[in-house]
Write the structure tokens for this entry.
Amino acid sequence: MIDITNFLAFTIDGLARGVVFALLGLSITLVFGLGGVLNLAVGAFAVIAVIIVSLLLGLIQLPVAIILSLIVLGIFAITIDRTLLSLVYRSEGEERILLGIFVTLGLLLVLEGLLFVFFPDSYSLPLGLSAVSLGGVIIRASSLVVISLSVITFLLFFIFFSKTSLGLATKTVLQDETGAILCGVNPRRVQSLIFVLSLVCAGFAGILYSITFSVDAGSSMILTIYAIITSIVGGVTSITGTVIAGIFLGLVATYTSAYIGAYIAEVTLFLIVVIVLLIRPQQIQ
Amino acid sequence: MKFNHRRKPEWLDWERIQIISLTVVLGFIPILIFNPDLTWISRLFIMFLIFAIIATGLNIVFGHTDQLYLFLGGLLGIATYGTMITATRLDISPWLTWLPFALIVGGIGFFVSYVCARRKLTVILIAIVTLSLQLAIVEVFVGARDWTGGTTGMRYSGFELEIVQNTLGLTYHQTLFYFVFLIFVAVTVFYHWLRHSKYGFAFALIRQDEFAAASIGVNVVRFKSLAGFFGAFTIGLIGPFYGQLERLILPSMFSFTSIDVVVLIMLMIGGFRTLLGPVVGAGVLIYINEELLHGIGQWRLTIFGILLIVLFLYFRQGLVPFIGQHITRLPSIVRRISNRLRLS
């Protein structure tokens, strides 16, 4: 017999996990949808953001620390985009995809290795909020904070892509790179902008993730994988799809880990992506 | 390749000479180098051959048919854990479960490649599917503690051959080396045969243009699945010896970074689709890892990452073709130098 109050509490936790997955997934979707580069290094950037915030936390207030760390991440993103990624974007088609995999995989290893050397501890950002009771259901206040911050971020994304001219330009490149050039959009510039946006998004996701879970250098790979899984299940080029997929996966992961077992939850996530890829590969090309 | 046409006894072509000389050189290693007081050197050479075999497996499946398998660690782990767990549960010698498990792992490769080829997955999707499988498999190794011992590890033994050891007067490591060596030679000879068989020809056609190959009657799904089988079977074959060498197996020994990344870099160093690429790459990387990174082990991951990026961007042909090109130019270089000397 499933206890209904527990179930509701798990649902809230699942949603909190789901929105973080969705943010991570967005960081993959944006870059992959835009130029065919599967950025395997996103997880490392999520961890880096958390570490920067932890280091700054003694000196300044949390919100300022978060904003500063995202700015640092943005600068980092521009540097990588101008150097490493330019080498990748030089090529086209299948070649670019392969190059993208290997270059970002290499970047992931480099960053993970550096983190292991310089920041071997594990980090988390507990907000120190107590649980709240809503109609008899005990809910972690931090989950509510994570959900509301993510919803705000999603809204900002939707506004960016539907209202601003930059967002619309991005959409044209997403649909057709050559077509965008004909409309006077410089795809490379849009790609740089989106790369920065995607890493900032990944960093923010990492910060939200670390409110509930602790992260260390080794989490880089895992966060990357969560990001890829969410993006794939959401159809890779659709932003709405990614958000829905993230919430779905977050709920699945939380329920399976609560009712069956923690490692079964991880295995389930991996198997879901395999099944989705095998059922609908044509959607994800 | 030019040598092929020049040399006449037909059976002794350039590739066969390479295999024979490699076999002779490697065969003498235990006698010349192994020393009971320095077991780590023996361990290193056995590890080198094990990785050369895994790299050959990846060479067949990724090099020849562009299926980017990122679950080599998982395949290796299934063979290693499966062989021992089944043998212990059935209370029989692991020698009896070794080949069946290699076949099972080969079957997994066949099945994965078959499904991916039927669904027409592109290289990136195959990479994601297999990477997900890799992580799921290692997660099971960690989680299914009752079977695998989880992160405390599982003791591994049963592949000792006392009879051989005693009759030939070899040490434990020498015997293990010769066993791995036998598998290595068998795999290399098989790979040599595969390259020149109708399979190798079909692989080349598929790699160049899948649609064109299909249009002239090449069964793309069948050949890709077979490549998956050959590659995975090769990896399954060596798994238990990896366990035997370490004597204690842990899930982390089969992780993405400990196997897949390493083997990819090896193959990139040696050269994709070359006969000697896997063995040259394995040799170079094991040397780098032990000699150059000695004492700075914590930088290993970072350096591997840099290697991966730099090699893939600037040196994708690999060492074997690179040296090959320069060797064919050797006579002219020698002539030029001797001319210069005569003039002066």
Remarks:
- Residues 220-246 of chain B form the longest helix (27 residues).
- The mean pLDDT of chain B is 89.
- Chain B has 17 helices and two strands.
- The radius of gyration of chain B is 21 Å.
